[in-house]
Every structure is written in C-alpha cells, then in structure tokens.
Write a structure and sequence with these properties.
single chain; 237 residues; alpha+beta; SH3 type barrels; 2 domains; four-stranded antiparallel beta sheet; 6 helices
Length: 237
Amino acid sequence: MKAVLKRAAVLVLLLAVSGIARAVPSPEAVQTGTPRPPALTPTPAMTGVPARTFCAEWVRQSREGYERLTLFTDRTLVWKRSRGGKDELLRREIAGDELEFYCGFFSRPEVWTAENDARTGLSGDFTVQSSITLVRPDGSRKTFRFDDLSPLPGEAAAVRAALEGLRASMTSPLAPASRFAPDALSAGQVLKRFDGAFFRIVSIEREKGVVELEGIREPYRQFRKIDELRFQFSPPE
C-alpha cells in the first residue's frame, strides 16, 4: 500500500512540473519575439483629460463689466456682454467649413509657440484686459493675455483678428468666398484685417492658392491661403 501511495505522489509531482514548464515561454520564444496584444491608444477617459467642448474663448474685462465670445465644437457661437447690471446674449450656429477653419487655425504650431503674455502693465478706468484660451482636440490649452494697448506678435494678432471676425459675424455674416476669388485679387491691393490692421498684397500664386501679404504698419510678411482670407479680412473694395 505504501508503495502505491509513493508512486501516486511521484506521478502528481511530475504532472505539476510539466504544467509549469508549458506555462513558461522558452528562451527561443522570447528571443524571436512572441506576438503580444497591441497596446491600447490612450483616450480622454483613460488619461483623465476631458474631451474639449470649445475651440476658443475670448474674454474682455474692464471695470465696467465683461464680454465673452465662445466657439463651441458643436458649431455653436455664443457672445455675452455684462455691463452696468445688464446682460446681452447672442447665439448662432456657424457652418461646418467655418468651424473646421477656425479650430484648425487656432491649433497651428505657430500659434502654440507665440508669446503668452503681452500685457503692458498699464491700468486705468477704461483699460480693457483680454485673455484668449485655445483648446486642441487632445485637450491641451494655450492662453494669450494682453490689453488694448499691447503690440501683439504676428500669430497672436492673427488669432485675435479671426475672433474679431467671429464676433462681427454675430450681426453681419462673413463675405462669401467669391469676394476673394483669385481673379478678383491683384498685387498692390490693400486688405483690412478684422482687427483694423492693413496689409498689402505682394504676390499671388494662383496655382497654389496662396497670397503673400505685407503689413503696412506691422513689420512682417505672411502667406495665407486665398480661400481662407474671408475668415480674417474684409473683402477688397
């Protein structure tokens, strides 16, 4: 009887060792790279970063009150002004191509590397302080701070001009693309940006759909796509 029990114990031990051996990969399998499940792509829910609900928000603050313009990712544009205890509110839905332009324009790498703080430090009863917050699809944010006397760098000024156009569009729609048709543009023409800055057309590359602009008072040149001019400039007269 003892001999039978001994043989049974040996058999159990051999089976256990065999199972462990099968569970552990061999050195050859490790060296040749056994296929592994693909890594999961992080999502906002996994990383804890909330998905963005808006592309841009511009807040202007003074002692009299504040004004806020917000472009939401569902194509809703909201403008609110609070002054002297009275609130004004406007809301409209913008076109899909407009949302695509603005959200893409505000997310460009050139915008993200621009100076964050351009405040002059001056104060007064009528001084207006501004902050513009931009949000990329991944939830990362960029904030510009400036006042009405700030000399903004090129890309920050372009962002402000685009937002000026959005604010104006609450009561007056943007000019149609036909007003900026390549055949309607010529070197030497002057375009007024929505922030009041003037630019002269230096050259036009109609095949590429690009125009080169030179600031009349701004010390720089820039290239812009012709089909995007209407989002930043008034049409040529």
